[in-house]
Amino acid sequence: MMKDNRLKVLMVGPDRSVHGGISGVVNNYYDAGLDRLVDLCYIGTMVEGSKPRKLVQAAAAYFRFLCKLPGYGIVHVNMASDSSYYRKSFFVRTAKFFGKKVVIHQHGGDFQGFYENELSHRGRQSVKRVLSMGDAFLVLGHAWKDFFGTIIDGDKITVLPDAIRIPAWEEKNYGVHKILFLGRLCRAKGIGELLGVMPELKKSYPDVHLYLGGIWEDKELQKEAVCLGDCVTDLGWLTGEDKTRYLKECDIFVMPSYFEGQSVSVLEAMAYGCGIVASKTGGIPDMIIEGETGLFAMPKDKQTLKDALFELLAKPQLCKVLGANARRKAEAEFSMDRNLEHLLGIYEGL
């Protein structure tokens, strides 16, 4: 299991090229040097594109997994809900069959809805069996620990929030009325409600501007954004220096999701001192403290979203205070160094 004093870890998850939260987490681990701290092999099980392309990728990934498995002692499975769960269940069962230590890392923001509303009694029993195969079970927030504790042995569950590299601090201009969103552009991320409040915001603040950094998954919403004219800018999927630029320039960050595992984008906004409005769902309450590190909107609630954004637009000093507090919380609780130390401890405990 050991080679050159490094643990051998075989990790699976979506391909690192995929636009999404899990691949972002994995790429952050690589950027932070996890592959130097352990003997890490990563296998991408899903790519973007057509169903046949996804099927070919999944089959090829499973074959590669079988070839690599004998040489690794720990299998780390990054899992969400729906098709991600079904796909990863094959890897979990196989790893357990061959006597490997299994870490299940649950990222799915809507796993509770999937489990309670989409599965039969028999399906839920199957999920319990698969999830119980994990020797360690990682969740992103305390709300998720409570939920999964009703399904599997709670002693296996560890809260391991997502983390980021904390950038050097630079002074930010507040009161510029620039609102940033980063993520998938779809209804489940609250984009319908966000676009719906923009006309009212613009009436009171003619200079307000919404920047959307993401890939459109809903053509109707994209048309709505175009109809709003020059107060909305479609940036496409942002990475690297382009993302850093807008996190620095925008004084307000918004994440009005219907559900959320946690949110790396919210962590990034905290690190850059943005005034944040985010949905009170999933692991977000572990990051946002109402009136201290940000403001809450309720999922699918246009009114609370509008009220919170109005408050930050009207009060740049409040925006500044919330941003400073959020930055301090990100440094103290969500740094990548802290996360890696915790993850390595979990590996070593196995």
Please give a handful of descriptors for the protein shown.
seven-stranded mixed β-sheet, 350 residues, 46% helix, 17% strand, 13 strands, globular, six-stranded parallel β-sheet, single chain
- Characterize the overall form: globular
With helices defined by DSSP (H or I, 4 residues minimum), what is the helix count?
14
Strands, total number: 13
Helix and strand composition category: alpha/beta
Mean pLDDT: 95
Tell me the span between the first and last alpha carbons.
11 Å
Query: How much of the polypeptide forms β-strand, as a percent range?
Result: 15-25%
For the CA atoms, what is the radius of gyration?
21 Å
How are the SSEs ordered, and which strands pair?
Elements: E1 2-3, E2 6-13, H1 21-31, H2 34-37, E3 39-44, H3 51-68, E4 74-79, H4 83-97, E5 101-106, H5 111-118, H6 121-132, E6 136-139, H7 142-148, E7 157-159, E8 178-182, H8 191-204, E9 209-213, H9 219-227, E10 232-234, H10 240-249, E11 252-255, H11 264-271, E12 275-279, E13 295-297, H12 302-314, H13 316-333, H14 336-349
Parallel strand pairs: 2-3, 2-4, 4-5, 5-6, 6-7, 8-9, 8-11, 9-10, 11-12, 12-13
Antiparallel strand pairs: 1-2
Helix pairs in contact: 3-4, 8-12, 11-13
Summarize this, please?
With 350 residues, the protein is of the alpha/beta class. The chain is built from 14 helices and 13 strands.
